[in-house]
Design goal:
three-stranded parallel sheet; 766 residues; alpha/beta; ten-stranded mixed sheet; 32% helix
């Protein structure tokens, strides 16, 4: 492939999205908005929908909203697609609003996990929902993907259900559920969906739609990458690799002989295996007979191939099955539910099988005896090429919420405003994926490590579309970014290494020597974007990966000089080595290097600008002393964080496995492997949060007690070098800077700009 067209040389043996023959309904043309009612269907000349998408978000026809992307992509394939957004889930009737779908239901909880959307890290109910008109909470059920799937089945029992979105993606195997504090089954089992699509699903959903349109039964669609489904048994011709135990010595991939597995399992438990002993005795007898026979006559050995079993590959003693016909059996749901060590082991195996170039199928048993069934997961989807990314983002989005959400003035800026849309209204997504591998984050598990970048021309076209078509545009693009601001066109230098690599991160513990860090294409795009007529300013709102940025001083200078609006957010997350190693984040020294460059280039540009660092409290691997040292660093550097992020255990994340099991899945998991200090319990979580907000008088009594217990009473005093004072105000007169920068009505005055961070000087009016 041409490196300029595609950053990654990753082999993409997949049918291009634009190569399918369109479905016959393409004759109806493109809808201004995908219909949400029968009357809209009638206006389009439809008598039915081929596919109906059910989502927990309000329908915003914008490429940052998953259902809009999937809907427009299916429409481009010629299918008639309707949307049921935020339906009343108390009965199946609202799910019949558009009639019976001809092909399948597409179900998602929305852009966010419904539980994270509804509950805080302290399991308190939120009163708001940024994906709902008017920012009103409670418009979707808990575990929305399961509830919606059940209602779809009730509405039309014979219509296949295809589940997708991040909620399903992160629950594809048995997973720890923070809200119920227990391990739950795969969502494939609980939702009773026919297929689960995990990760970015354009490639899979297009293939499945065309197969269902060709009358292929959904039960026979078992070879599409990025899917999960239920099977009763492993089909013929597959090698099953048993990974249901830990502490198994030897070469894992060589475990083909089942007796070998049994004997090793027995030996690991300190016992002998009767079957192994019996087999050895029989083998000895046969060998003795063969020796006597060989003395009498020579015999020619004949090898007969098994047509149902592919040949083993490899050299020497270790013969391994081909990856495309291998499936790894994870510990069962019942095992991981009762054994935290096996849970950590399963999590590690899952994360080792995430590279589309070498990942194998996974299978996990649920149930026993007559209820037993396997959840089968195919390898991750093949990343989109640059041409395919352009095709996705060039679809005819209206770039606006559906007209049904407009207020009495026909506007979406009043009482019915959707905050999530407002945030991305004037932003442009330039890439997907993240190779950072932060253990607390779900981006890598969902979008993958391989960066999928749009072409420069496609990005510039979207900027022009915003300028010409989006109501209220003032000339300021709020963001050119994605999961990270500066991974655009970064990738592995070697296609062979990239396809074979199993590392969870390309930048931890240091930047891989095979990773390109050239920010030149991004700098060039910034410059061209700024030169577009009618564009006054382009800001960078996505989080910056500063350990990559310091590799390119030219990029930092370009960013600081032209694309920072006074504040730039970055996420060092912590200052101490212990928690940083469990997060897979760089040391604070890298932050210091970036800050020096930031300050230098800001001064050269004649601007007074500030970094906004974000930190996490109570992350696994964080001791009380670590949080104390972080608080000391914050005070020394003059930071007063108002918005404090407490670790939130999201399903399937490696840090969540640490939280649940106290084991570290970043290394080989054994019965005696490293234990992780896990911050559980309300009191200790409050303490870690209090250290981040050391300046808040409400937390001083708690911090005084903790510092005395830790033997650090020397940090209590009224001097500048002390962390907290000895005195306590009679009443809490503390007012956060965020509140100072906000208005009582919740909406800014004309010309006022609000900041989401505190402890830094407010923006000066220009």
């Amino acid at each position: 492939m041409n490196a300029f067209v595609d950053v990654s040389f990753f082999p993409r043996e997949a049918k291009p999205l634009t190569s399918y023959r369109k479905f016959w309904a393409a004759r109806f043309g493109t809808a201004p908005f995908l219909p949400m009612s029968r009357s809209e269907m009638t206006q389009l000349g439809w008598d039915s929908c081929d596919i109906i998408l059910v989502t927990g978000d309000a329908y915003v026809d914008h490429p940052s909203f998953g259902m809009a992307v999937i809907g427009r992509m299916l429409e481009a394939q010629g299918f008639r697609v309707g949307i049921i957004a935020q339906p009343d889930w108390q009965s199946a009737e609202p799910f019949k609003a558009l009639g019976k779908p001809n092909l399948f239901w597409g179900v998602t909880a929305g852009n966010m996990d419904s539980m994270i959307n509804r509950y805080t890290a302290d399991r308190k109910i939120r009163s708001d929902d940024a994906y709902t008109p008017g920012d009103i909470g409670g418009k979707r059920p808990d575990r929305a993907a399961i509830v919606y799937s059940q209602r779809c089945r009730e509405a039309f029992p014979d219509v296949p259900i295809v589940l997708g979105g991040i909620e399903g993606s992160l629950r594809r195997i048995a997973h720890y559920d923070y809200w119920s504090d227990k391990v739950r089954r795969s969502i494939v089992v609980d939702s009773k969906c026919d297929l689960l699509l995990y990760g970015n699903a354009e490639r899979a959903v297009v293939e499945i739609a065309h197969r269902l349109a060709a009358k292929v039964p959904v039960q026979e669609i078992t070879d599409v990458r990025g899917t999960a489904f239920v099977r009763r048994q492993t089909p013929e011709g597959w090698f099953e690799i048993d990974s249901t135990t830990v502490d198994t010595p030897g070469h894992v991939e060589a475990h083909i002989n089942p007796y070998l597995m049994i004997s090793e399992q027995a030996k690991s438990n300190g016992a002998s295996c009767a079957r192994e002993d019996e087999a050895q005795a029989v083998a000895n007898q046969e060998n003795a007979k063969a020796s006597l026979s060989n003395l009498k006559t020579e015999q020619t050995l004949q090898f007969v191939s098994n047509p149902n079993m592919p040949a083993l590959k490899g050299k020497g003693l270790h013969k391994v099955p081909p990856r495309d016909r291998s499936v790894i059996r994870l510990p069962s749901y019942e095992q991981v539910k009762s054994d935290p060590v096996l849970y950590a082991h399963a999590n590690r195996v899952l994360h080792l099988e995430t590279n589309p170039g070498n990942a194998r199928c996974l299978v996990q048993a649920h149930g026993e005896d007559h209820t037993a069934r396997d959840v089968w997961m195919t390898p991750p989807p093949i990343p989109l090429t640059t041409a395919e990314m352009d095709a996705v983002f060039d679809l005819p989005y209206a770039r606006s919420p559906h007209p049904s959400y407009a207020d009495e003035n026909g506007s979406h800026d009043g009482a019915t405003k959707i905050p999530a849309w407002e945030m991305i209204r004037f932003s442009v997504n330039i890439m997907r994926g993240c190779f950072g591998g932060c253990t607390f984050c779900s981006i890598t598990e969902h979008e993958g490590r391989i960066i999928q970048s749009r072409s420069e021309a496609s990005v510039l076209r979207e900027i022009e579309d915003i300028r010409d078509k989006v109501k209220g545009f003032t000339g300021v693009i709020s963001d050119l970014g994605g999961p990270t601001a500066n991974m655009y066109r970064l990738g592995c230098k070697s296609p062979e290494i990239e396809a074979a690599c199993r590392k969870p991160s390309c930048v931890f513990p240091g930047i891989c020597s095979n990773l390109t860090t050239d920010h030149g294409p991004l700098v060039q795009m910034y410059r061209k974007a700024r030169s577009i007529k009618g564009i006054k300013k382009i800001l960078i709102g996505s989080g910056l990966r500063y350990d990559l940025a310091v590799q390119s001083p030219e990029y930092v200078k370009e960013l600081v000089t032209h694309h920072v609006g006074g504040y730039l957010k970055i996420a060092p997350e912590h200052t101490e080595k212990g928690p940083l190693s469990k997060m897979m984040k760089p040391g604070i020294g890298t932050y210091d290097r970036f800050k020096s460059m930031f300050d230098k280039f800001s001064a050269e540009a004649g601007k007074k600008q500030f970094l906004v660092p974000y930190f996490i409290a109570a992350h696994p691997g964080t001791s009380d002393e670590d949080m104390m040292n972080l608080a000391i660093w914050l005070k020394k550097n003059g930071f007063r964080a108002d918005q404090v992020q407490t670790f939130y255990p999201s399903p399937m994340a490696s840090a969540t496995a640490m939280y649940h099991t106290t084991r570290n899945p970043l290394r080989k998991v054994t019965r005696d492997s490293e234990k992780v200090d896990v911050v559980k319990g309300e009191k200790r979580r409050r303490l870690h949060k209090a250290f981040l907000r050391y300046h808040d008088a409400n937390h001083w009594p708690l911090l005084r007690d903790a510092l005395k217990a830790m033997g650090r009473a020397d940090l209590i005093g009224n001097g500048k070098h002390h962390l907290i004072p000895t005195w306590q105000p009679l009443s809490d007169e503390y007012q956060s800077a965020r509140r100072k920068n906000s208005t009582p009505t919740g909406s800014p005055r004309k010309g006022q700009v609000l900041t989401q961070h505190t402890g830094l000087p407010p923006r000066k009016k220009r």
